[in-house]
Design goal:
- By secondary structure, the chain is of the alpha/beta class.
- It has a single domain, classed as Alpha-Beta Complex (Spore Coat Polysaccharide Biosynthesis Protein SpsA, Chain A), CATH 3.90.550.10.
- It contains 9 helices and 11 strands.
- A 5-stranded mixed β-barrel has the order 7-10-8-9-11. Strands 2-3 form a two-stranded antiparallel ribbon.
Amino acid sequence: MKIVGIIPARFASTRFPGKPLVDIGGKSMIQRVYEQAKKSESLADVIVATDDIRIYDHVIAFGGKVITTSETHQSGTDRCFEAINKYTATADVVINIQGDEPFIRPEQIDLAASCFDSDKVQIATLVKKINSNEELFNVNTPKVILNKYEEAIYFSRQTIPFVREKEQNQWLAYHTFYKHIGIYAYTTKILAEITALKQSSLELAEGLEQLRWIQNGYKINTKITDFESVAIDVPDDLKKLTIFL
């Protein structure tokens, strides 16, 4: 099975314009993500998918592979689909690697890839146990509920499930909660199908594209990771990276 990692990267981020090119300890964010992805033992290839010539030229300059994509994509999934269609070789599985996690662990990529040891898997992602009330009640941290097969059955910005008859500051003692780690993997067949779907009512309500897939009957398998994921959404988030440098 051939698995290709694609890193969507756009310049015009609303909260952090030019984010892929920001310097982090002497290397750009996109270069750090690319180099981390290249360490994965599961990936046959790694490609940056971008709509901006500055990012394109930069990736070429540091020796990476890059494909130009449309400026109109609404999600990284859509950008991945265009990129894999332009890819000169074939792939069985695409892993969508977040371009704003400069110190993503290659082990996390390999863990997502391991879901496809079963040919029944359509889509895969990672989750991590929540250990603090700050994360548990943060609406910017999507939570996920799993069934007994470790398939995701719902994602929400709200804290789910609700722990009845317990004070909120005690919920972690009575239930295991999971947050979503934003790496997606899909077979190329399923990627083509889900990018053709219209936005669903749950997706529009929560602002989470994975709900479109669930609402349309697709299964999302998960693996539980112990590694923390540090995403950079705004310039102030760069302070979080001091522990890595």
